[in-house]
Protein 1
Amino acid sequence: MPNFDYEAPTSLAVALELLAQPGEVRPLAGGTDIIDQLKSNRRNADLVVDLKRIPELSSLESNGSGLRIGSAVSCTDVHNFTAKNSGYAALSESSELVGSIHIQNRASVGGNVCNAAPSADTIPALLIHEAIARTASASGEREIPLIDFFAGPGQTVLAKGEILKELVLPAPSANTASAYLRFIPRNEMDIAVAGVGSLIEVDPSTKVVTKARIALASVAPTPVRAYAAEEYLEGTAIDEATINKTANLAVQAAVPITDVRGSAEYRKELIRVLTNRTLTICLERLA
């Protein structure tokens, strides 16, 4: 591991000053990604800035307008909080899948987002809940729809000295359900070969879908939305045939590669199956 300086500020203002310094300055929200990257020489750092002690980044709250997740809040805390606060089932499920329990206790959902791995489990759940990324830098703050946050594998649109401050998810409307599923070769501690998050809002009297969101992981350079599938499903009465058609359309958004963990065609089939299953789970949750 390269030598680097370490700072653990307790205020956001001081952290942003440190992050704006020249050289390779890396933020640390949980450390489960960056420490491994430094050890394997995939990243360099002159300075590592630990964000865990900054109150604004450790806030987790829900009110009538939605859910706010500070970028340093652990996956465990997000899972426990959303499991008790209905409306964000997909996020509760996905935040419980990030590595082992030990990793979940340390890793943050914000860090999972900023690592920008196409296979990241929490990102599809955040996308279907239409999360907004609020960022901060020494020059000010901005809001970015999460779907526009990713620039490529391991890359985001964050500028030098800019960090993710929090993720903001609007409150789900009534008669809404969500679900997240992934496929992995082993039961735990593995990376998704493919993952799907689905959310639907259904008119209970007609079973017509009034809102649909479907997001895919590990089948493109960045997490993607299945827009064609969403557009088909919205305005349609949901049943088994509709779900099958939607699942087939979701495959169109997948542009996977073939690697040692699975072929491109295998990943497309997984998207079809997982979309079908997540939509079925959503429908069951609305029953």
Protein 2
Amino acid sequence: MSELKKEFENLKNYSVKWEKYFSVYEKFFSKFKNKKIIFVEIGIFNGGSLQMWKNYFGKDSKIIGVDINPECKKFEEKENDIFVEIGNQSDDEFWKLFFNKHGNVDAILDDGGHTNLDQIKTTVNTVQHINNGGVLMIEDTHTSYVDEYNSSQKYSFISFSKKVIDDLNSNIDLDLGLKINFSLKKYIYSIDFYESIVCFNINQTKSKKNTKINNKGKNHSIEDLTWQGNELFVKKFKKYLDKIPFIRLNKFTKFLKKRINNKIVKKYFE
């Protein structure tokens, strides 16, 4: 049994977690143990996990709980560096006041409202205030598939996370034709997806434009056959292609190749 799960089962205050979460917690948060860090948990409920995190990270850690319910203020233990801030995680102004008060943090766990508005607003308001090497972990992302948590499936948190993937890939020094107006690639270095969890790894020093470099080794002038393996349709349609005038052949084969290749991979997207 994991260390965190043992802590969880012996908490004096009630708490609810999904069992698979603990291994993900330890994978991303173990590096912060026994260090002077600031850890934020959004969603306090009955206060149980605040003490769990304090025990796990150690005496030098500062734990900050965030909840919209004023009753949760009772779980604050300033003498043990456990603090509680009352506010709405989907409110830009709340986060502005929060970081003005506490400064940058090392890790944030969002176990709050779980709506697309809550999770997206939390992401866009916090990533720039997480220290390099830190993480923003959004849990219970299965709510992206539950109508009552979403104004639209198109604008669910998972759809937003997929858009962030495009955003990160646009950081390469190539024109990919991606049109991204709202970008977080300046802060987010990589993303990890798990069942019901999305983790944004923050590191602004590693989020610079990705440029191609060459070494000084001998160039053997090997022919680049990148597209050779994608010509699966040629054998099947060769007798038809031989009848097409050369001028039209190149344009037509490109069109046909895309159609055939799309048909081959389509089943993997269903």
Protein 3
Amino acid sequence: MNVAKLLLHGVPDSPLIWQPLLAALDLGETPVAVPALPGFTGPPPTGFPATKEAYADWAVGQAEELFAVHGPIDIVGHDWGALIAQRVAMLRPDLIRSWAISNAVIEPEYRGHRLARIWNTPVLGEIFMALSKADKLANGLAAQGMPATIAREEAAQWKNKDKRRAILKLYRSAKGLSFAHDWARDIPNLPGAGTLIWGEGDPYVELAVARRYAASTGTPLTVIEGAGHWAIAERPQDVAAALRAFWNGL
């Protein structure tokens, strides 16, 4: 059975970030949806508030569309896409066969990284965005393991003011990255078929966060050694192997 897949990217990325992993997975005729978060590759829909709740609702809609045609789906997320994927699984477990997330997790003790705190701060976040340059971002992403060609394309999209505005709204709706008082309370609602796949050297969400979550919930954790935050693109063969093993065991 070819279970449909829904892949959700994170910040500051776009669907391009999934290309290496999709090539490694070689899913053939399996239905796959790789949508762009609203506002990330073009203007957002009119009136879209770009809050975490709005993105979760949008992603539920994406899952519903796949479910209507193909039945229960496998949802996969990275970074903010991981948080949104988990939220979809919490809200609509009836749509989900399994969830798999990489380098971000809804964990009650986590309080966000330095950049998240900057983006969460009015004025300071706007100044950061105004001073950010695409070429510097490309170099930074590549230095952290993202393939250089993808890093350049992702950085070129950084020039989109809609995207930068959406990112600020998203982080502020989550108080940086703090879920203890809302989404984390619904962790017990998650379907049991879930897994974590983590780049060992992630400087944004340290491996200790994933280990703490795995220990407290019993969720399996695969550590991709020698990889960072973008393990999905840096070590796609290893991530693909972990996903195939997970899906084959369902």
